[in-house]
Amino acid sequence: MEILLVEDNNDLAIELADFFEAQGHSIDAATDGITALHLAIVNHYDVIVLDLNLPGLDGLTVCQRLRQEEKWTPILMLTARDTLTDRIKGFEYGADDYLVKPFSLKELNLRLDALVRRSSGIKRSTTLNVAGLELQINTRQVMRNGIKIELTVIEFQILELLMRKSPHVVSRDELSRAIWNDSPTDADTLKVHIHHLRNAIDKPFEQPLLHTIRGIGYQLAENHALSA
After folding, report:
1. Do 164 and 116 sit in the same domain of this protein?
2. Per-block mean pLDDT, blocks of 10 residues, the chain (228 long)
3. Taking the complete model, does pTM exceed 0.85, yes or no?
4. Contact of 73 with 48, CB cutoff 8 Å
5. 133 falls within a domain
């Protein structure tokens, strides 16, 4: 695994680099946001581990600029900020996962493995269509009625699953298992991703496609109805 590690705490950076190298991963490291942004744009990485409190450019700005540059490398944010508002902001700026300090190195490694598996899984040559919403897995393009829609890696994965199952309802547990594998997330995090996904694929358009089925899960369909 090729990892870009962005962390300005020298002791933690050394600990993480030693751990990753012991796992057989290849590491590039940056201690400030400007260097991190440059490395992430000019090089290929399987995943980026990004601290939020950085000199130069903070982690949120780095993440946002990478997404604006259409760099879709999975990003896991490391931070001491543990409120739901902080997590929501991280996802809004384009993060794919969020781990609060202090954390377990084993959990971090599991989360990175899951991110890389999900990212590599979107390379299959397939196109899905539901009521004018089109998802091209090989190019990672999403369009609705000819309008391009930008999604994070996790939002893309959620949408792919919902489109494959459409018009059937997908339970929250099934979504969580499919997306996070051995590192299931909490209910609030899933709700945040669904909220962002709904804003992206429904808010600019007249007819909603993403429906919440109370007490069960979510459905992507032209007509809002329960399906077995």
Report:
1. no
2. 93 94 92 94 92 91 87 88 79 87 90 82 67 85 91 88 89 82 68 91 91 90 64
3. no
4. yes
5. no
